[in-house]
């Protein structure tokens, strides 16, 4: 009686022999019978011979060859490109054909080439800041002493005319006595008035001196404008020198909004453009201003153009340091063709869009781009109004077109010539 190990070995040899026989039979049948089914594109005669326009390497589809053979680039056979695949019934480039069910499963979206107003529209962000033109510096024109300081501190918001400090200026006392002494002489009176004004007295104080005849020993310094008190450099009992700065005030109406515009859109912004600032503290209440300056240097960190917008702030609701979403718009009556920006395929050397044709076919078309207008991009050449382009899933179609050797061109371009370049010399091919 045979052992179990011997029985298993015999069964394994028998199974291997049967498998080899089956595979050999199928291979022989395929060699003798040939392909059972041949796919014939729509529009061509069933069973008719298909005409090959050229052959190509799917890995290098831009190079065409006039005869079959082995690719000089890859260790593979060249693939034929048939005439019924390259053109449709109208003679136009057919492109890639996708079944409608697959289109739906891929989630492809189409968008129409439309004519839109050519007015520039830039979306950016900005920071509210102080208006450096609305600055008042309060100085003492003559030496003196500080008698009193009002209870104020830097960053306080004050109104115009707010008292800041009370000073005693010895030179003012002597000058006032001189004016009272020469009131009968018009020439000397005018000279005495000018001296008092030069020492820092106001027109109102000089008139009060002439009318009342009472010498003022104390002088109150007030804020010439309203705004934020940036600095207050006086304290009671201090000694002042001529020309010493007492306070610095920065106005709050209007304020400046510094907007960071990407350098790619810098050419769309001009002085005088309308600006809408949307702040989180004022939802639904945009503040409208105007572009007043384009600063000459870009921001080093963000490579963006700094645009200055002037915003009104009569009610004081805007605060320096607030961030805002800004929409810059320049009016214009010109129009241009545009497609969604997401539909454009940028390869670095050119720009493509996938145009949807009849019968579920999609073909790449090279276009010349213009400026971006919000979420759309202007198309200067390559498309016509009313055409459909792929806005989602276009990269898959572009890859398939490249593998099939379908080159990009304007919609009216014809198929490749019937006599493409000859097969490259394989010995000299890279």
Describe the structure.
- It contains seven helices and 26 strands.
- Helix content is 20%, strand content 36%.
- The C terminus is likely disordered.
- The strands form five sheets. Strands 4, 5, 6, 21, 22, 23, 24, 25 and 26 form a nine-stranded antiparallel sheet that branches. The protein has a six-stranded antiparallel barrel with strand order 7-16-19-18-17-20. The protein has a four-stranded antiparallel sheet with strand order 8-15-13-10, with no helix packed on it.
- The chain is rod-shaped and about 125 Å long.
- By secondary structure, it is α+β, with helices and mostly antiparallel strands.
- Strand 17 and strand 18 form a beta hairpin.
Short summary of the structure?
By secondary structure, this protein is of the alpha+beta class. The protein has helices at 4-33, 83-86, 100-106, 170-181, 186-199, 203-212, 394-403; strands at 52-57, 60-65, 79-82, 96-97, 109-112, 114-117, 121-129, 135-140, 144-149, 157-158, 163-168, 219-222, 227-232, 239-240, 244-250, 255-262, 274-279, 287-298, 304-311, 323-329, 335-340, 345-346, 351-356, 361-373, 376-381, 388-392. Strands 4, 5, 6, 21, 22, 23, 24, 25 and 26 form a 9-stranded antiparallel β-sheet that branches. Strands 7-16-19-18-17-20 form a 6-stranded antiparallel barrel.
Global structural class: alpha+beta
The biggest sheet amounts to: 9 strands, antiparallel
Examine the secondary-structure arrangement and name the CATH architecture of the domain at 137-250.
Beta Barrel
- End-to-end distance, in Å? 68 Å
Rg, alpha carbons: 42 Å
Q: What's the total helix number?
A: 7
Quaternary structure: single chain
The tally of beta strands, per DSSP, is 26
Instruction: Give the low-confidence spans.
Output: 22-47, 410-430
Strand content: 35-45%
The name of the CATH topology of the domain at 137-250 is: OB fold (Dihydrolipoamide Acetyltransferase, E2P)
On the 0-100 scale, what is the average pLDDT?
78
Overall geometry comes to: rod-shaped
For the record, what CATH class of the domain at 137-250 applies? Mainly Beta
Helix content: 10-25%
The CATH homologous superfamily of the domain at 137-250 is named: RNA polymerase II/Efflux pump adaptor protein, barrel-sandwich hybrid domain
């Amino acid at each position: 009686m045979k052992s179990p190990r011997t029985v298993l070995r015999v069964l394994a040899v028998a199974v291997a022999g049967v498998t080899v026989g089956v595979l050999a039979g199928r291979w022989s049948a395929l060699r003798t019978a040939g392909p059972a089914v041949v796919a014939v594109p729509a529009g061509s005669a069933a069973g008719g011979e298909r005409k090959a326009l050229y052959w190509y390497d799917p890995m290098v589809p831009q190079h065409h060859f006039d005869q079959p053979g082995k690719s000089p680039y890859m260790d593979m056979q060249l693939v034929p490109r048939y005439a019924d695949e390259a053109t449709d019934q109208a003679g136009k480039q057919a492109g890639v054909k996708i079944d409608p069910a697959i289109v739906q499963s891929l989630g492809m979206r189409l968008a129409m080439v439309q004519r839109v107003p050519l007015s520039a529209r830039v979306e950016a962000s900005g920071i509210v800041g102080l208006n450096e033109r609305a600055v008042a510096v309060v100085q003492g024109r003559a030496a003196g002493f500080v008698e009193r300081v009002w209870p104020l501190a830097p960053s306080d918001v004050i109104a115009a005319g707010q008292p800041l400090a009370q000073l005693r200026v010895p030179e003012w006392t002597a000058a006032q006595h001189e004016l009272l002494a020469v009131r009968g002489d018009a020439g000397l009176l005018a000279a005495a008035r000018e001296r008092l004004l030069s020492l820092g007295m106001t027109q109102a104080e000089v008139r009060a001196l002439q009318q009342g005849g009472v010498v003022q020993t104390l002088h109150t310094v007030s804020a010439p404008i309203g705004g934020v008190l940036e600095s207050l450099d006086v304290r009671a009992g201090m000694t002042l020198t001529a020309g010493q700065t007492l306070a610095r005030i920065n106005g709050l109406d209007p304020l400046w909004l510094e907007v960071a515009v990407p350098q790619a859109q810098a050419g769309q912004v001009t002085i005088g453009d309308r600006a809408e600032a949307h702040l989180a503290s004022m939802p639904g209440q945009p503040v409208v201003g105007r572009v007043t300056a384009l600063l000459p240097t870009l921001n080093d960190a963000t490579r963006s153009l700094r645009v200055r917008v002037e915003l009104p702030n009569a009610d004081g609701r805007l605060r320096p340091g607030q961030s805002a979403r800004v929409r810059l718009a320049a009016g214009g009556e010109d129009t241009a063709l545009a497609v969604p920006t997401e539909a454009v395929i940028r390869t670095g050397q050119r720009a493509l869009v996938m145009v949807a044709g009849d019968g579920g076919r999609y073909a790449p078309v090279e276009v010349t781009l213009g400026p971006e207008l919000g979420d759309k991009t202007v198309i200067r050449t390559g498309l016509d109004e009313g055409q459909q382009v792929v806005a989602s899933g276009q990269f898959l179609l572009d890859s398939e077109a490249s593998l099939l050797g379908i080159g990009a061109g304007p919609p009216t371009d014809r198929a490749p010539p019937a006599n493409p370049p000859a097969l490259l010399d394989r010995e000299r091919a890279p």
